[in-house]
Amino acid sequence: MTEAPGAPAPHACCTPARPGLEGADAAGGLAQRAPDPRAGLGRLVPIRGGAFTMGNDVDEGFAVDGEGPSRRVVVGDFAIGEATVTNRAFAEFVRATGYVTTAEELGSSFVFYLQVPEERRARMRRTAPGLPWWLDVEGACWQRPEGPGSQVHDRPQHPVVHVSWLDAQAFCAWAGCHLPTEAQWEYAARAGLEARRYPWGDELEPEGKPRCHIWQGDFPRSTRGGWKPGAIPAKSFAPNGYGLYDMCGNVWEWCADAFSPSYHLSTSGVDPLCDEDTGRRSLRGGSFLCHDSYCNRYRVAARSSNTPTTSASNIGMRVAAGGRG
Ligand SMILES: [Cu+2]
Questions:
Q1: What's the 106 CA to ligand 1 centre distance in angstroms?
Q2: Distance, CA 32 to ligand 1 centroid (Å)?
Q3: CA gap 293, 207 in Å, rounded
Q4: End-to-end Cα separation, the chain, in angstroms
């Protein structure tokens, strides 16, 4: 699908980026404590490896994303979180380590404008360049997802958001796991269905029922039917065939790979991992801001990326264990 007329970049709806902070590409400084592996992580689903068709050749994404050419890829056995990492699990990590996230260090994070109360919005000036619906909100971070005055005490089962790729790496180092590779993520998302658009098949809303948390209404101006922009609790919709929740929509999920648009041309066909020095990291799954009219990256083959220091109210993470990573 196409982006809106006059859109600054086809990456637009999903991912503002922090400029000028690239290069910090390793999660240094966090002592590896004797972790309680998988503490508070929820279930890790064992996935039996195999061969699958990865990527997409149908012209329904954005050429710059590099969704194709599709190809056969083999992944080894691994395990993956049944859901995204929750606020509860991330709080456990912070309590145990005193970890300070990138957003907390830098003093701000990106919040979608409709998530910020109108009276506060009016006083805000800073927006992401070219993306007016993103506010760079001072004080926004995982514990205050909409900025000062917001909190997560009543959202323990929501996915943690405002985590940078560096934060995700640090969390994984503590929990004794790793971020899934793109190949592991897509293999898990497809759950054995070949060449389908979504984890459940080709139809977005079978029998008229939403299957994932994506934008409802006219993006980015208005919502319909009482739908509100913002992450919702993990596991709010039915899982896919492998028992995995929210592989589409809700929040973007960081992957281990460096992002390259030529990923499908340049990486191996066996447990691929892109380690080119591109300054960006891959994101999968789409978020509550995705909508067919603007950004349909809630498909299993769709890809996005951001700089490793970027955080936003629609970016979270899921962990993996075993296999490559
Ligand atoms: Cu999107």
A1: 25
A2: 34
A3: 21
A4: 32
| 148 CA → ligand 1 middle, Å | 26
pLDDT confidence of residue 42: 83
- The 10s digit of each residue's pLDDT in 199-221 is 999 999 999 999 999 999 999 99
How far is the C-alpha of 18 from the C-alpha of 1, rounded, in Å?
Answer: 26
What is the largest distance, in Å, between two alpha-carbon atoms of the chain?
Answer: 53
Given this model, what pLDDT does residue 132 score? 86
How remote is the CA of residue 5 from the centroid of ligand 1, in Å?
Answer: 16
pLDDT of residue 59: 84
User: Can you list the domains of the chain with their CATH numbers?
Assistant: 44-321 (3.90.1580.10)
Q: How far is the CA of 182 from the centre of ligand 1 (A)?
A: 17
* CA pair distance 281, 100, nearest whole angstrom: 20
Strand partners, 72: 53
Choose among 91, 226, 105, 95: nearest CA to 160.
91
Tell me, in angstroms, the distance from the centre of ligand 1 to residue 111's CA.
14
CA of 313 to the centre of ligand 1 (A): 13
Query: 10 C-alpha vs ligand 1 centroid, how far in Å?
Result: 10
Q: Where are the alpha helices (DSSP H) in 107-213?
A: 118-121, 165-175, 182-190
pLDDT at 51: 98
Distance CA 175, CA 39 (A): 6
Å from CA of 288 to ligand 1 middle: 8
Burial classification of residue 5, based on how many CB atoms lie within 10 Å of its CB (0-12 exposed, 13-18 middle, 19 or more buried): exposed
Q: Which two tokens stand for residue 106?
A: 């830098």
Regions of the chain where pLDDT drops below 50: 1-9, 20, 22-35
Identify the pLDDT of residue 19. 67
Q: From ligand 1's centre to the CA of 294, what distance in Å? A: 8
